[in-house]
Amino acid sequence: MPHTVALIPAHNEALTIRTVVDATRPHVDAVIVIDDGSTDGTAEALSGCDAHLIRHPDNAGKGRRLVEGLELAFTEGATQVVTLDADNQHDPADIPAFLAKAAEHPGALVLGDRSAQMDRMPRSRARGIRFGNFFIGWACGRRIADAQCGMRLYPAQLWRKVQLPPDQIDRFLFETAVLLHSAEAGVPFVFVPVDARYEGFVLRASHFDPIRDFLKIVGLVTRFLFSRRLQLRGLLVVLGISMQADN
Q: What is this structure's pTM?
């Protein structure tokens, strides 16, 4: 498996998947697409494309497919994996900035940061992101510019170091759980500014359920906080009352 791999989980993304893969391929050594039970011809849209396609007949959710792809890439020898969505919400042209940031900060988790463009998001989405930054940052014990962007770079060192409980990788829980456990393991977080691409880019309704999935994430973070005695220092850090240690 080559040095840098792009991982793209897809579920019913036939309108955009080929464009995303074609734009991603020049920036990485290999692309893995995991078709999570699509019924709209997503896999067929990649016919003849230079990507490793894994097809599943059933939908297991984004988190489990991300874990599957990360495991595959790192087991095969990849040193870093860039994740991005298949709906064109993330711009593959930003990948070089992620690679440059990773080179500056070896072993760090590189996170996309849309905070400078919150005004371009739907209002409810922006409110949810601000709440997540505060609540997840509290649990992590560090301030987080954007806790919910799915465009990230995972280094192999992180995957060897951080073990996630199996019940914390379902659907949209994984991307929050990996922040919680990475912070606890001392993995640094660094950020790359990315566009908040909504109008004209997302061509299907989000798979994120604003009630069900939001409550699951809140439950995950709440349990984590209570199991760590509420992380008072983390609360002080996100409130700006206490200085955080180097992350």
A: 0.92
